């Protein structure tokens, strides 16, 4: 499975920690984020992650900025993306099981690296449950289609 990962200047170190963690677990990782700590604009990287997932270049995406909010908002503007900001593992797991999230976002200024790894693991190990949740996800995507 290929994971696209993107970040702004606030999350360079955490991005590399998560990349190593993913590689150790056998995932292929596509680094679409900045590797410089010079100030940059998170929408650029949210869009890159979103487009990689929406196009099928990657199976899932991880987006990290200071809070996870800005980069998730940008990723969510790409058609087909359901990016969720998760600061703890329970929400991350449920965002897959119920919301079929395809981009996980979190904040490098919010979560430490060990918590971030747990969030990533719970998210990747969870599976979409379908059923009534499929209907609700379809309703969300219908809003996007009407736009
Ligand atoms: C950058 O300072 C910061 O605004 C950004 O990383 C992110 O937290 C925005 O949502």
From TrEMBL:
<dbReference type="GO" id="GO:0004751">
    <property type="term" value="F:ribose-5-phosphate isomerase activity"/>
</dbReference>
<protein>
    <submittedName>
        <fullName>Ribose 5-phosphate isomerase B</fullName>
        <ecNumber>5.3.1.6</ecNumber>
    </submittedName>
</protein>
<dbReference type="InterPro" id="IPR003500">
    <property type="entry name" value="RpiB_LacA_LacB"/>
</dbReference>
<feature type="binding site">
    <location>
        <begin position="8"/>
        <end position="9"/>
    </location>
    <ligand>
        <name>D-ribulose 5-phosphate</name>
    </ligand>
</feature>
<dbReference type="InterPro" id="IPR036569">
    <property type="entry name" value="RpiB_LacA_LacB_sf"/>
</dbReference>
<dbReference type="GO" id="GO:0009052">
    <property type="term" value="P:pentose-phosphate shunt, non-oxidative branch"/>
</dbReference>
<dbReference type="Pfam" id="PF02502">
    <property type="entry name" value="LacAB_rpiB"/>
</dbReference>
<feature type="binding site">
    <location>
        <position position="99"/>
    </location>
    <ligand>
        <name>D-ribulose 5-phosphate</name>
    </ligand>
</feature>
<feature type="active site" description="Proton donor">
    <location>
        <position position="98"/>
    </location>
</feature>
<feature type="binding site">
    <location>
        <position position="132"/>
    </location>
    <ligand>
        <name>D-ribulose 5-phosphate</name>
    </ligand>
</feature>
<feature type="binding site">
    <location>
        <position position="136"/>
    </location>
    <ligand>
        <name>D-ribulose 5-phosphate</name>
    </ligand>
</feature>
<dbReference type="GO" id="GO:0019316">
    <property type="term" value="P:D-allose catabolic process"/>
</dbReference>
<feature type="active site" description="Proton acceptor">
    <location>
        <position position="65"/>
    </location>
</feature>
<dbReference type="InterPro" id="IPR004785">
    <property type="entry name" value="RpiB"/>
</dbReference>
<keyword id="KW-0413">Isomerase</keyword>
<feature type="binding site">
    <location>
        <position position="109"/>
    </location>
    <ligand>
        <name>D-ribulose 5-phosphate</name>
    </ligand>
</feature>
<feature type="binding site">
    <location>
        <begin position="66"/>
        <end position="70"/>
    </location>
    <ligand>
        <name>D-ribulose 5-phosphate</name>
    </ligand>
</feature>
<comment type="similarity">
    <text>Belongs to the LacAB/RpiB family.</text>
</comment>
């Amino acid at each position: 499975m290929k994971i696209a990962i993107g970040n702004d200047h606030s999350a360079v170190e955490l991005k590399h920690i998560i990349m190593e963690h993913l590689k150790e677990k056998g995932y292929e990782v596509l680094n679409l984020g900045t590797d410089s700590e010079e100030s940059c604009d998170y929408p650029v990287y949210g869009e890159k992650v979103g487009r990689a997932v929406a196009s099928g270049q990657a199976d899932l995406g991880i987006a990290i900025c200071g809070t996870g909010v800005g980069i998730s908002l940008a990723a969510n503007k790409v058609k087909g993306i359901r990016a969720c900001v998760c600061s703890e593992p329970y929400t991350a797991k449920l965002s897959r099981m119920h919301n079929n999230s395809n981009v996980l976002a979190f904040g490098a200024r919010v979560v430490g690296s060990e918590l971030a790894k747990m969030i990533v693991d719970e998210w990747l190990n969870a599976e979409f449950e379908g059923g009534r949740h499929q209907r609700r996800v379809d309703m969300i995507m219908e809003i996007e289609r009407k736009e």
